[in-house]
Design brief:
The protein is an all-alpha fold. It is built from 10 helices and no strands. Helix 7 packs parallel to helix 10. The radius of gyration is 20 Å and the shape is elongated. The mean pLDDT is about 85.
Length: about 180
């Protein structure tokens, strides 16, 4: 039995290059209609300036901090994918930072009423580390804007498990010492 070759992006690209505009529009239209993720990506790609971050934040909230009545599970990977897809479509670092901070805030809020697994705590601290890394190259105005929001979570940090609160407070202190 002859094993079939795995189709790659290169293979698809060569086929696409041979299509006419009308056929490409039809393919893109089908992808747009296929699922919410594709629709969100294309809307963001072509209308980034006119789209607020509200639908992205709503998706993150649903995945990272679902309401108790929704019976939904926390889906960290899906929440991260929302941020990744936004950035892929827009290359907007500040919008990405905003969504990352929102992920962090929602994660902390969720942990204030839900005793998460160690991997959930890790996801929150990993996002926090990424936020600080992006903030290192931002203006003082941007840094201050986001540090205020991060500090608004401090009342909850004392109650978090796995040393999360201590870690976040220590990293933030180091960040502020380096950037003052």
């Amino acid at each position: 039995m002859v094993e079939k070759k795995q189709i790659t992006w290169k293979d698809i690209k060569s086929k696409i290059e041979k299509e006419n505009n009308a056929e490409l529009l039809k393919i893109i239209s089908n992808l747009y209609s296929l699922n919410k993720e594709n629709k969100m990506f294309l809307n963001t790609k072509f209308y980034a300036e006119e789209i607020s971050l509200k639908p992205f934040k709503k998706e993150i909230q649903i995945f990272i901090n679902p309401t108790p009545t929704s019976n939904s599970r926390i889906k960290i990977v899906e929440a991260k994918k929302v941020i990744s897809n936004y950035y892929k479509a827009t290359k907007d670092n500040i919008g990405k930072l905003e969504l990352m901070v929102y992920f962090y805030e929602e994660g902390i809020d969720s942990l204030s009423s839900y005793d998460g697994s160690e991997s959930y705590y890790d996801a929150i601290t990993n996002m926090f580390d990424k936020i600080l890394k992006i903030l290192e190259v931002q203006s003082v105005t941007i840094i201050n804007k986001y540090l205020i929001r991060i500090k608004n979570t401090f009342d909850v940090l004392d109650h978090l498990g796995y040393g999360t609160g201590d870690y976040i407070l220590g990293e933030l202190e180091d960040f502020e010492n380096k950037n003052n």
